[in-house]
Amino acid sequence: MKIATFNINGIKARLPRLIEWLEETRPAVACLQEIKSQDDGFPVADFEAIGYTAIWHGQKAFNGVAILADKRAGYEIAEVRRGLGIDGLKDGEGEQARYLEADVNGVRIACLYLPNGNPHPGPKFDYKLAWMERLRERMAEIWAEEVPAVVLGDFNVIPEDDDVWSVKAMADDALMQPESRAAYARFLNDGWTDALRTHNPRGGVWTYWDYQAGAWQRDHGFRIDHILLSPECADRLESAGVDKAHRGREKASDHAPVWVRLR
């Protein structure tokens, strides 16, 4: 069972690249972030045309998450939850579209787009930390259900110094602050397994390259897209990787897809 995450950075702008990736790699489950689309604008028909079914949680111009399943291969989605119950930063905004959870053929899939937190310090960084704590609470609830579970998406956290091309360049960024890293480390201390780190213990694997300053051409990237596995799934982990070449294609997202394969 191949399960992937991909921050698509605007589903309408990247739809040809997304369809291309789905058809070439054919994950059983694909979790998307930053779809930047209202619910009624989500291109569900395009996915159905290539054999994928979908659920999504959209928001105008910002955020937004979705889960796709390969129906041709027999995978079905049953939605469990949308949102973590955290209001946005603006008064009356309501909850931002950042979390979607479903069961796919007996595996719990939690797709997330964690707040960036910049500028740091400030209310956006405080919101990021509060969101991470609420996520941890939800992960504990999933854990208590004793279901095979995968929590994945754009965490907007660089966990270790060897997860970034230059520690100095990112030192003041919210993605690398001690508080962000400590919150991420608590997920691992709770017993969740960082799949990509497990297969790349020395680091040096990037999932994001900025559009600015020739970051892609110079390989100035970092790792912020993560796949965390419950013990039931960690025991079944066969492989994990990054589809890096897709970042170099025309009109690509600034993220590359990340995936795991479970027995």
Helices and strands, with pairings:
Layout lengths: L1 E6 L3 H15 L3 E5 L10 H5 L3 E6 L7 E6 L6 E6 L16 E6 L2 E7 L9 H23 L3 E6 L12 H4 L7 H12 L3 E2 H5 L8 E2 L11 E2 L2 E5 L1 H4 L2 E6 L15 E5 L1
Parallel strand pairs: 1-2, 7-8
Antiparallel strand pairs: 1-14, 2-4, 3-4, 5-6, 6-7, 8-12, 9-12, 10-11, 13-14
Helix pairs in contact: 3-5
Question: Can you characterise this structure?
Answer:
One of its GO terms (molecular function) is double-stranded DNA 3'-5' DNA exonuclease activity. It is an enzyme of class 3 (hydrolase). Keywords: Hydrolase, Magnesium, Metal-binding. The longest helix has 23 residues, at 123-145. α3 runs parallel beside α5. The model has no long low-confidence stretch (mean pLDDT 97). This protein has 7 helices and 14 strands. By secondary structure, it is of the alpha+beta class. β1 (2-7), α1 (11-25) and β2 form a beta-alpha-beta unit. The protein has helices spanning 11-25, 44-48, 123-145, 167-170, 178-189, 195-199, 231-234; strands at 2-7, 29-33, 52-57, 65-70, 77-82, 99-104, 107-113, 149-154, 193-194, 208-209, 221-222, 225-229, 237-242, 258-262. The protein has a 6-stranded mixed β-sheet with strand order 3-4-2-1-14-13. The protein starts with a strand and ends with a strand. It has a single domain, classed as 4-Layer Sandwich (Deoxyribonuclease I, Chain A).
